[in-house]
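Predicting holo structure, nicotinamide-adenine-dinucleotide bound.
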Amino acid sequence: MSAQATQAPHLAEAPRIEKFSPVDGSHLGDFPISSADDVERAVAAARTAFPAWRDLSLNQRFEYLERLREIVSSDGESFAKTISEDTGKPLLDSLLTELMSIPLFIDYYRKEAPRALKRRKLSRQLFFPTKTSYVEHAPMGVIAVISPWNFPFQLSMIPVLSALIAGNTVVLKPSEVTPLTGELMREIFERAGLPAGVVSVVQGDGATGAALCRADVDKIFFTGSVATGRKVMAAAAEKPIPVELELGGKDAMIVCHDANLDRAARAAVWGGFLNCGQMCISVERLFVVEAVYDAFLEKLKTEIERIRVGAPDEGSDMGPLTFGAQMGTVARHLQDARERGATIAMGGRPMEGPGQFFEPTLVLDVTEEMEIYRDETFGPVLPVIRVADEEEALRMANNHQYGLTGSVWTRDVSRGLALASRMESGQCSVNDLVLSVGNPALPFGGVKRSGFGRYHGPEGLYAFMNQKAIMVDRGLLEVEPFWYPYAPKYEAMLGTFRNLMGGKMVRALSHFYEMHKLTKKRP
Ligand code: NAD
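Done. Tokens:
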């Protein structure tokens, strides 16, 4: 009998994630996949750990988070290298868009959480004169966080940390596309010395995610595609438990006739090619008004030419596509666009050599029926749409299935604000883009197919808490006006009701006090 055959079958056949470098295709390692049993064990451990974690004070929870912050601070550069190796993104991006979220959010919540989580006393209501009302928030219990590969660290850590601050325990399932970052986060949680079961990381693909949705969790916080979001929501509906869905986008950028064109062109290129365009809040539809179209386009081309594409260690602006399958999506969208009359003004092809590199691509004459306009491309492609004016741009921007973020570019801030208010999206910036998601005070989330629910800001704590209403009566009245007996009080009740409906409050109250007297008398 071979050594292999003497092993328990589940060990011999344990499936693993094989990870290859997006930069050069080299084999970066194999990672064990958590089974459905592993997932259940992690959730059970989180359930056991919950009461003690919930009962810690905010300060005590923050002590653990401060340790985590110190670890990220001391080893940040090496962590950035791991994330860049996993995703192919420039080292600067790993520092800026992944790791910097840790101090920003911990600092913000250290200040905000005590205020947001304080029991709130409400103003007294006329017909509840002896009662004091409060609203407070209670942690939900065990939270499942399921995250994607495009910002594998930030999009896992921020929901996990928010849920922890709010007093929950968590099981995190990062994307199978970026297992190195999954292992990195497991290491960070271990080193922070969090009590057993408070955070567990289960690695694996959709099957592991589905097992987590089926397990005994109290909420699912999901970031990913619309297609998977539907499955997650269906699984949550079986129980039912709440879900938050942070899904795809096709964000609009509107360049008005009075925009600062230099600033807008540099922003469009950063917002369109950052993270190789693999960003839910990437500029995926760039509307430019006729009056400035030609001048803006020249500036755009100059900026795109300046993009340095390369491996993370070569000081690149843009790396390869992280997920190989995206090469196919990008090529398909470009082919469809060409066939329907678009012009590929720059780029448009995979780059020579190893790795998943694609040329920064500028597409002009884009129209509403093209795939590149309708569906998320998630690649280094900037589609430009020429419009008569900003009203046309706004109408087109809103006539779309997605609504995550967007931006408006104008020197007239009042008009910018008015356009931003009318944009159908979860966030909208004026003369800025992308950075609003990094502002920890601003709620983030989508409308329409981009999902629902909000995190970041105080909402980022409430997302993981149940609101609880408390009403207190100090017992000064012996009885309540509405209690039994009913028989002597019908007329008084009618008087209360009719005057209340007619807006005659003083009369309504006098009938109300009459009811109280009659209740006290009890024949
Ligand atoms: P995806 O939907 O393929 O996968 C997301 C996660 O879900 C992964 O961890 C995956 O393993 C898991 N999963 C797959 N099947 C599952 C199932 N049946 N049950 C439970 N979990 C399952 O998405 P992706 O390709 O990793 O990420 C790209 C998508 O995410 C894009 O559409 C992008 O726009 C979106 N995204 C949205 C935001 C946002 O904040 N709104 C941020 C980043 C990415």
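The chain has three domains: 16-117+137-248+459-463, 251-438, 477-520.
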